[in-house]
Amino acid sequence: MEHKIEDLAIRGLFLLKECEKPFLKEWFHLKKDMKAWQNDLVSEFENMIVYGFNNLSRTTFDSTNDFIQLLVLKWQKRHPEFVDDFDAIFLISAVENLFHKVLKRRNAGFLEHQAVQVFFTRILDKVLRTQQPEYKDDKWLKTMLNLRAVPSNWLAVIRNDKTQHKVNKVVCADGISVNEQLVTMCEGLQAQQPADLATALSRLLSPGQDQPQIVTIPCLTETLLICVKDKAETVTDEQKETLRKMYLKQMKLNHLESELEWKDATLLFQQVLIQSRSASDAVKMITQGLVDYLPFSRCALFIYSPGEHSGVGVHAHNVHTGSVQHIKESIAEFPLLTKYLKHFSHSKPIFIEDAADILPGKYVRDYSLKSLVVLPIYVPAENKLIGLALLDRGENTSFTVDNQTLTALIKFGQYGGELLNQYYEDAVQLFGVQRAVLTIREREVLKLIAEGASINEAAQSLHLSSYTVRDYISAIIQKLDAKNRTDAAVKALKMRLIQ
């Protein structure tokens, strides 16, 4: 099976090269949309894109992993120290979306889209391997502490950032009596050098001891500090390497588990969405799936109305749906959200630490909101925003979002967008979303076009110039997000804007 998947990924690699010119045009437009955001990071990505295309032209790769590893090594040379990959994950997904957009214009088949998807999934896996493992269980850290070869009192995991080093986890050996509040206080300490943290931890966790022996073990983006029980104990380089390998092996296992988790979640979500048979099914399955397969407990879904630039509540999970369906708000009322939608190409989830910063007080109070995630329900190939999902972990609950969840969120938003797009016209009618407001004159023009009149015939009937009718038709096409005047007429009939 692995050979089949690799063949598909290689096919995706060839497609990238074939789409180089149209992709670079799309990238140019995306850069303009993101000009107010992270200019340095966008420039770095552009350098990597050019580097990647140049190597695809000059080199033959036996596997996609060889090409991905080439990119990773190049990136690590430019960024030898750890950097937060939250925005990098979004940019990788944005690049993938542009390729899907180009493929759709080429009328590419489903398998070609899958080939590109498999390739970018492998890139995301590689990025996520640099992320911090979640400490779901301290047992393996205590196992390291209790090794007879190096008897120790405590172990601290230090996260190495660009300018700061932070105590991320502290574990004490069995039999060592330490105040838990003191341990909690230690987790979060920051300093410019690990040695400074070693001194601070020694004073807090080993009071009364005269400069205990602290062993330092570098491990990729982290450093282990281990306090040896006996100051006179000699810790050899071989023992340090054993501890280092133990830690790195567990990191690898944690990452592998996390990778499988986000992939499994997106696969299960897709399987649920496939069962949808109507607009009503679609909104229910999207809202429930976002709660069932991601670490959230409540979800409210809003359909976006471009004509009014507003959001209309359509469904909720673990929130009273009826109350959500009464909500209809103009996006202009939310300056931060408006800025976000303008500059982030409608596809990036946004984490809000305090909902009061973005939502009116009445909603914060009525729904007991604290931390919040706003997820665009988005169609990548059409660069089209369908709706927004608001997610949290319960009443008045603060939380953070890790990069594994972010990756799954991006995919969930796209899968939900593609599904809801199939039923969008039905959803507009079912949930009373006013997609666009046509003037009386625009309706008159569109009715004549729907009846088969030409531009000149419509102009004569309405006693207007043909140029004026063309202007009306252009405005109608834009409001209805239609491909041409015929498509606009068909959509208007479905939406009952004309009879």
TrEMBL record:
Pfam families: GAF (PF01590), GerE (PF00196)
CDD domains documented for this protein: LuxR_C_like
Record key words, sorted: DNA-binding, Transcription, Transcription regulation
Keyword NADP: no
Residue ranges occupied by any HTH luxR-type domain in the UniProt entry: 431-496
Keyword Transcription found: yes
InterPro entries in the cross-refs: GAF, GAF-like_dom_sf, Sig_transdc_resp-reg_C-effctor, Tscrpt_reg_LuxR_C, WH-like_DNA-bd_sf
Domain of life: Bacteria
Protein name: LuxR C-terminal-related transcriptional regulator
Organism: Mesobacillus jeotgali
